[in-house]
Amino acid sequence: MSKDIQVTKEGFDALKAELEELKGPVRNNIAEAIREAKSHGDLRENAAYHEAKLNQTRLEKRISDLERAVQYAKVVERPADAGNGAYIGSTVKLLDLEFDDEFEVTLVGAYEADPNKSQISIDSPLGLALNGREAGEEIDVVAPAGKQKYRILGVAAP
User: Fold this and answer.
1) Same domain flag for 63 and 107
2) Which of the four, 15, 98, 116, 117, has the lowest number of CB atoms within 10 Å?
3) How would residue 46 be classed by pLDDT, with cut points 50, 70 and 90?
4) Final residue belonging to a domain, choices 34, 50, 75
5) What CATH code is carried by the domain that includes residue 14?
6) Are residues 109 and 121 in contact, defined by beta-carbon separation less than 8 angstroms?
7) How many domains does one find in the chain?
8) Residue 147 forms part of a structural domain
9) Residue 50 to residue 44: CA distance in whole angstroms
10) Cβ(89)–Cβ(107) under 8 Å?
């Protein structure tokens, strides 16, 4: 089983930038919060101290996760022979055939997916259905919410 984490070039850069931020200023701010809370005395009943320590634990977990992601990240680029097909990094304009609603999604690696920003994992049901498809094609997506039909209105390469 491969440990590679597929990401776009932009996603890889964002991972590295977040890791730098967390290891520098954010870690320093939490350390300062712990020092400040310790100065208030009895640690057994010091809510600020316990909160700062909890934040430190969360931060170190996130740093560990990011370090692993950067270590195993594989920057995936659009294949040279991709033609007009949708691949990682592509922005795809879709028409929901049931609700007659248009929307756009960008195909990204699973680690950088963020549905709130319309960044959809290439490993998600929608991402898998779009992979390699071109404008004008209709796709069926079997998702937890049921079967959905879309028409691809356009594919923009990165």
Assistant:
1) no
2) 116
3) confident
4) 75
5) 1.10.287.180
6) yes
7) 2
8) yes
9) 9
10) yes
Task: Please count the other Cβ atoms lying within 10 Å of the Cβ belonging to residue 92.
Answer: 25
**In this structure, what are the phi and psi dihedrals at residue 70, rounded to the nearest 5 degrees?**
-65, -40
Task: For residue range 76-128, list pLDDT tens digits in order.
Answer: 887 777 678 999 999 999 999 999 999 999 999 998 999 999 999 999 999 99
The CA dihedral of 102, 119, 85, 76, to the nearest 10 degrees, is 180
CATH code of the domain containing 122: 3.10.50.30
Residue 10 structural domain: 5-75
pLDDT tens digit sequence for 10-26: 999 999 999 999 999 99
Statement to judge: residues 66 and 9 lie in one domain:
yes
Q: Which of 152, 156, 157 has its CA nearest to residue 94?
A: 152
Contacts of 24 (CB under 8 A, 6+ apart): none
Give the E-state strand segments of 69-125 in sequence order: 73-75, 91-96, 101-108, 119-121
The token pair at 45 is 């009943």
Chain segment 51-72, per-residue pLDDT in tens: 999 999 999 999 999 999 999 9
Q: What is the pLDDT of residue 2?
A: 58
Residues 109 and 142 in one domain: yes
Coil, strand or helix at 142? strand
The closest alpha carbon to 136, from 113, 123, 154, 148, belongs to 154
Does 83 map to a domain? Answer: no
